[in-house]
Design brief:
single chain, 114 residues, alpha+beta, Alpha-Beta Plaits, four-stranded antiparallel sheet, 3 helices, 4 strands, 32% strand
Length: 114
């Protein structure tokens, strides 16, 4: 079973969460974590969904099948393979405990990033 992360940005409207969760269910995926945020000031919707492809559907097939939903809601979409380490840039204005905590977690392998 492969784990993926789906990130979505689009104009805020009704039905986005239902469309995404319905699609993933239809493709044999199980959502393990989901976070969404509506920015009322800009009218934008943001979502991050971690899911497991229990039926072994490949990333490319998930991306292709999701295109009609992405078009309907004018989404910027990205499917990430969770097993691949993401490149990350940390920018800080001051040194402090938050930066130290992130660096420590990276060093012990708790943050799978480069």
């Amino acid at each position: 079973m492969k784990t993926y992360v789906l990130t979505v940005t689009c104009p805020s409207t009704r039905g986005i969460v239902a469309a995404i969760s319905g699609y993933l269910t239809e493709k044999g995926c199980n959502i393990v974590d989901s976070s969404q945020f509506d920015d009322l000031g800009t009218g934008k919707f943001f979502m991050r969904v971690s899911f497991i492809s229990e039926e072994g559907v490949a990333r490319e097939a998930l991306v292709k099948g999701f295109e009609p939903i992405a078009a309907k809601f004018a989404m910027d979409v990205d499917f990430h393979d969770a097993s691949q380490r993401m490149k990350v840039l940390l920018m800080v204005s001051r040194f402090g405990h938050c930066l130290n905590d992130l660096l420590y977690r990276w060093k012990i392998g708790a943050l799978p990033i480069d």
